[in-house]
Amino acid sequence: MTQADNGVSGKDFERPAWSRLMDDIRTGRVDCICVKDLSRFSRNYIETCEFLEKIFPFMGVRFVSINDGFDSHTSSNQNEGLIIALKSLVNNQYLKDISRKISSSIKARQDRKEYIGAYAPYGYQKSKVVKGKLEIDEKQATIVKGIFSKRAKGMSHYAICNWLNNLGIPCPSAVLRSNGKIEAENCNRSGIWLPRAIKQIIKNPTYLGHLVYGKSSQSLADNKPRVWHSEDDWIICENTHEPIISCELWNQANVIEKERRALYTSYHVGKEPD
Does pTM top 0.90 for this prediction? Predict the structure, then answer.
Protein backbone atom coordinates (compact mmCIF):
# COMPACT_ATOMS: atom_id res chain seq x y z
CA MET A 1 0.00 0.00 0.00
CA THR A 2 1.36 3.42 -0.96
CA GLN A 3 0.60 6.74 0.69
CA ALA A 4 1.73 10.04 -0.83
CA ASP A 5 1.98 13.61 0.45
CA ASN A 6 3.19 15.30 -2.74
CA GLY A 7 3.72 19.03 -2.28
CA VAL A 8 3.13 18.90 1.49
CA SER A 9 5.94 19.95 3.83
CA GLY A 10 7.56 17.25 5.95
CA LYS A 11 8.23 19.60 8.85
CA ASP A 12 5.61 17.82 10.97
CA PHE A 13 2.98 15.06 10.85
CA GLU A 14 0.01 17.29 10.06
CA ARG A 15 -0.34 15.77 6.59
CA PRO A 16 -3.48 14.22 5.02
CA ALA A 17 -1.79 11.07 3.70
CA TRP A 18 -0.02 10.56 7.03
CA SER A 19 -3.37 10.67 8.84
CA ARG A 20 -4.75 8.05 6.45
CA LEU A 21 -1.67 5.90 6.98
CA MET A 22 -2.06 6.03 10.76
CA ASP A 23 -5.71 5.01 10.40
CA ASP A 24 -4.59 2.00 8.35
CA ILE A 25 -1.98 1.12 10.99
CA ARG A 26 -4.59 1.24 13.77
CA THR A 27 -6.90 -1.08 11.83
CA GLY A 28 -4.07 -3.53 11.17
CA ARG A 29 -3.92 -2.96 7.39
CA VAL A 30 -0.29 -1.74 7.55
CA ASP A 31 2.54 -3.33 9.52
CA CYS A 32 5.60 -1.91 7.72
CA ILE A 33 6.64 1.61 6.69
CA CYS A 34 9.49 2.08 4.21
CA VAL A 35 10.97 5.51 3.39
CA LYS A 36 13.85 6.70 1.23
CA ASP A 37 15.39 8.50 4.20
CA LEU A 38 14.22 10.09 7.44
CA SER A 39 13.92 13.55 5.88
CA ARG A 40 11.12 12.08 3.72
CA PHE A 41 9.44 10.76 6.88
CA SER A 42 9.66 13.94 8.95
CA ARG A 43 12.04 16.82 9.68
CA ASN A 44 10.83 17.13 13.27
CA TYR A 45 13.41 15.02 15.07
CA ILE A 46 11.55 14.99 18.41
CA GLU A 47 8.42 13.48 16.89
CA THR A 48 10.55 11.17 14.72
CA CYS A 49 12.25 9.78 17.84
CA GLU A 50 8.87 9.32 19.50
CA PHE A 51 7.60 7.23 16.60
CA LEU A 52 10.80 5.18 16.20
CA GLU A 53 11.39 4.49 19.89
CA LYS A 54 7.85 4.15 21.27
CA ILE A 55 4.85 4.31 18.94
CA PHE A 56 5.95 1.96 16.14
CA PRO A 57 7.34 -0.74 18.48
CA PHE A 58 4.16 -0.60 20.57
CA MET A 59 1.95 -0.94 17.48
CA GLY A 60 4.10 -3.71 16.01
CA VAL A 61 5.08 -1.69 12.95
CA ARG A 62 8.36 -2.32 11.19
CA PHE A 63 10.15 0.83 10.03
CA VAL A 64 12.78 0.88 7.25
CA SER A 65 14.84 3.90 6.13
CA ILE A 66 16.80 2.86 3.04
CA ASN A 67 19.47 5.58 2.77
CA ASP A 68 20.06 5.57 6.52
CA GLY A 69 20.50 1.78 6.58
CA PHE A 70 17.97 1.46 9.39
CA ASP A 71 15.56 -1.44 9.86
CA SER A 72 13.76 -1.69 13.19
CA HIS A 73 13.53 -5.50 12.84
CA THR A 74 17.28 -5.97 12.52
CA SER A 75 18.44 -3.16 14.82
CA SER A 76 20.57 -4.52 17.65
CA ASN A 77 20.54 -1.30 19.66
CA GLN A 78 17.24 -0.11 21.06
CA ASN A 79 18.50 3.47 20.84
CA GLU A 80 19.63 3.16 17.23
CA GLY A 81 16.44 4.85 16.05
CA LEU A 82 17.31 7.87 18.19
CA ILE A 83 20.86 7.94 16.79
CA ILE A 84 19.59 7.72 13.22
CA ALA A 85 17.05 10.49 13.83
CA LEU A 86 19.70 12.78 15.32
CA LYS A 87 22.04 12.00 12.44
CA SER A 88 19.29 12.86 10.00
CA LEU A 89 18.66 16.15 11.83
CA VAL A 90 22.35 17.11 11.67
CA ASN A 91 22.62 16.21 7.99
CA ASN A 92 19.45 18.09 7.16
CA GLN A 93 20.63 21.25 8.93
CA TYR A 94 24.03 20.97 7.24
CA LEU A 95 22.42 20.76 3.79
CA LYS A 96 20.21 23.73 4.57
CA ASP A 97 23.24 25.75 5.68
CA ILE A 98 25.05 24.89 2.44
CA SER A 99 21.93 25.85 0.49
CA ARG A 100 21.81 29.27 2.17
CA LYS A 101 25.49 29.90 1.47
CA ILE A 102 25.13 28.91 -2.19
CA SER A 103 22.05 31.12 -2.58
CA SER A 104 23.92 34.02 -0.98
CA SER A 105 26.90 33.49 -3.28
CA ILE A 106 24.69 33.38 -6.38
CA LYS A 107 22.90 36.57 -5.30
CA ALA A 108 26.25 38.33 -4.82
CA ARG A 109 27.39 37.28 -8.31
CA GLN A 110 24.10 38.50 -9.78
CA ASP A 111 24.58 41.86 -8.07
CA ARG A 112 28.00 42.05 -9.72
CA LYS A 113 26.33 41.19 -13.05
CA GLU A 114 28.41 38.06 -13.55
CA TYR A 115 27.42 35.13 -15.74
CA ILE A 116 26.62 32.25 -13.38
CA GLY A 117 25.75 29.43 -15.78
CA ALA A 118 27.64 26.13 -15.76
CA TYR A 119 28.81 26.75 -19.31
CA ALA A 120 28.58 29.61 -21.79
CA PRO A 121 25.65 29.83 -24.22
CA TYR A 122 26.34 28.76 -27.81
CA GLY A 123 28.18 31.62 -29.52
CA TYR A 124 30.05 32.65 -26.37
CA GLN A 125 32.83 31.42 -24.14
CA LYS A 126 33.72 32.23 -20.56
CA SER A 127 36.52 34.74 -20.18
CA LYS A 128 39.76 33.34 -18.79
CA VAL A 129 40.72 36.82 -17.60
CA VAL A 130 37.58 38.33 -16.06
CA LYS A 131 35.49 36.01 -13.87
CA GLY A 132 31.82 35.86 -14.85
CA LYS A 133 32.41 37.64 -18.17
CA LEU A 134 31.19 36.30 -21.51
CA GLU A 135 33.31 36.69 -24.64
CA ILE A 136 32.25 36.03 -28.22
CA ASP A 137 33.30 32.79 -29.88
CA GLU A 138 33.70 34.09 -33.43
CA LYS A 139 33.12 30.75 -35.17
CA GLN A 140 29.93 29.97 -33.29
CA ALA A 141 28.78 33.61 -33.43
CA THR A 142 28.71 33.38 -37.24
CA ILE A 143 26.29 30.44 -36.93
CA VAL A 144 24.12 32.34 -34.46
CA LYS A 145 23.90 35.30 -36.84
CA GLY A 146 22.91 32.96 -39.66
CA ILE A 147 20.15 31.42 -37.53
CA PHE A 148 18.67 34.81 -36.64
CA SER A 149 18.97 36.07 -40.22
CA LYS A 150 17.20 33.08 -41.73
CA ARG A 151 14.46 33.13 -39.10
CA ALA A 152 13.92 36.86 -39.68
CA LYS A 153 13.35 36.03 -43.36
CA GLY A 154 10.67 33.55 -42.42
CA MET A 155 12.59 30.26 -42.66
CA SER A 156 11.11 27.55 -40.45
CA HIS A 157 12.92 25.91 -37.53
CA TYR A 158 13.11 22.64 -39.45
CA ALA A 159 14.53 24.34 -42.53
CA ILE A 160 17.19 26.06 -40.43
CA CYS A 161 18.06 22.70 -38.85
CA ASN A 162 18.40 21.11 -42.29
CA TRP A 163 20.66 23.97 -43.39
CA LEU A 164 22.94 23.51 -40.39
CA ASN A 165 22.96 19.70 -40.56
CA ASN A 166 23.74 19.71 -44.29
CA LEU A 167 26.74 21.92 -43.56
CA GLY A 168 27.87 19.38 -40.95
CA ILE A 169 27.80 21.91 -38.11
CA PRO A 170 27.52 20.16 -34.70
CA CYS A 171 24.68 21.24 -32.45
CA PRO A 172 25.37 23.04 -29.13
CA SER A 173 25.14 19.89 -26.98
CA ALA A 174 27.52 18.06 -29.33
CA VAL A 175 30.04 20.87 -28.92
CA LEU A 176 29.78 20.70 -25.13
CA ARG A 177 30.14 16.92 -25.24
CA SER A 178 33.22 17.09 -27.47
CA ASN A 179 34.77 19.56 -25.02
CA GLY A 180 34.06 17.19 -22.12
CA LYS A 181 31.67 19.61 -20.41
CA ILE A 182 28.64 17.31 -20.39
CA GLU A 183 28.13 13.55 -20.55
CA ALA A 184 26.57 11.86 -23.57
CA GLU A 185 23.55 10.64 -21.61
CA ASN A 186 22.66 14.21 -20.60
CA CYS A 187 22.30 15.63 -24.09
CA ASN A 188 21.16 15.11 -27.67
CA ARG A 189 23.23 12.07 -28.59
CA SER A 190 22.62 12.33 -32.33
CA GLY A 191 24.69 15.51 -32.62
CA ILE A 192 22.25 17.02 -35.12
CA TRP A 193 20.32 20.25 -34.79
CA LEU A 194 16.73 20.02 -33.55
CA PRO A 195 14.01 22.72 -33.65
CA ARG A 196 14.03 23.25 -29.90
CA ALA A 197 17.70 24.35 -30.05
CA ILE A 198 16.79 26.96 -32.68
CA LYS A 199 13.91 28.25 -30.55
CA GLN A 200 16.08 28.47 -27.45
CA ILE A 201 18.69 30.52 -29.30
CA ILE A 202 16.22 32.93 -30.89
CA LYS A 203 14.44 33.78 -27.62
CA ASN A 204 17.64 34.10 -25.55
CA PRO A 205 18.37 37.78 -24.65
CA THR A 206 22.03 36.84 -24.06
CA TYR A 207 22.66 37.44 -27.78
CA LEU A 208 21.63 41.09 -27.31
CA GLY A 209 24.39 41.51 -24.72
CA HIS A 210 22.11 41.02 -21.72
CA LEU A 211 22.34 38.56 -18.82
CA VAL A 212 19.20 36.77 -17.70
CA TYR A 213 18.57 35.69 -14.11
CA GLY A 214 15.59 34.10 -12.40
CA LYS A 215 14.56 31.55 -15.03
CA SER A 216 14.08 29.12 -12.16
CA SER A 217 14.36 29.08 -8.38
CA GLN A 218 14.93 26.47 -5.71
CA SER A 219 15.60 26.54 -1.99
CA LEU A 220 16.63 23.48 -0.02
CA ALA A 221 16.79 25.65 3.09
CA ASP A 222 13.08 26.46 2.77
CA ASN A 223 12.11 23.02 1.41
CA LYS A 224 11.10 24.57 -1.92
CA PRO A 225 11.55 22.44 -5.08
CA ARG A 226 12.82 23.86 -8.37
CA VAL A 227 10.21 26.05 -10.06
CA TRP A 228 10.52 27.41 -13.60
CA HIS A 229 9.32 30.99 -14.08
CA SER A 230 7.67 32.62 -17.09
CA GLU A 231 9.65 35.04 -19.27
CA ASP A 232 7.74 37.95 -17.74
CA ASP A 233 9.34 37.17 -14.37
CA TRP A 234 12.93 36.93 -15.65
CA ILE A 235 15.46 39.45 -14.35
CA ILE A 236 17.41 40.98 -17.26
CA CYS A 237 20.63 42.96 -16.76
CA GLU A 238 21.34 44.90 -19.93
CA ASN A 239 24.63 45.56 -21.70
CA THR A 240 26.81 43.25 -19.61
CA HIS A 241 28.83 41.85 -22.54
CA GLU A 242 29.32 42.27 -26.28
CA PRO A 243 26.18 41.40 -28.29
CA ILE A 244 26.17 39.06 -31.26
CA ILE A 245 22.80 40.17 -32.66
CA SER A 246 21.54 43.71 -33.27
CA CYS A 247 18.24 44.80 -31.72
CA GLU A 248 16.78 45.17 -35.21
CA LEU A 249 17.59 41.60 -36.24
CA TRP A 250 16.51 40.30 -32.84
CA ASN A 251 13.12 41.98 -33.17
CA GLN A 252 12.62 40.74 -36.72
CA ALA A 253 13.33 37.14 -35.77
CA ASN A 254 11.17 37.24 -32.65
CA VAL A 255 8.27 38.85 -34.51
CA ILE A 256 8.29 35.80 -36.78
CA GLU A 257 8.35 33.59 -33.68
CA LYS A 258 5.26 35.27 -32.26
CA GLU A 259 3.40 35.26 -35.57
CA ARG A 260 4.07 31.57 -36.19
CA ARG A 261 3.13 30.70 -32.61
CA ALA A 262 -0.16 32.60 -32.90
CA LEU A 263 -0.91 30.99 -36.28
CA TYR A 264 -0.31 27.46 -35.09
CA THR A 265 -2.16 28.06 -31.84
CA SER A 266 -5.27 29.08 -33.77
CA TYR A 267 -5.18 26.16 -36.24
CA HIS A 268 -3.26 23.41 -34.48
CA VAL A 269 -4.06 23.49 -30.78
CA GLY A 270 -1.48 21.49 -28.82
CA LYS A 271 1.11 21.38 -31.62
CA GLU A 272 4.43 23.16 -31.56
CA PRO A 273 4.79 26.11 -34.01
CA ASP A 274 7.58 26.02 -36.56
Answer: no
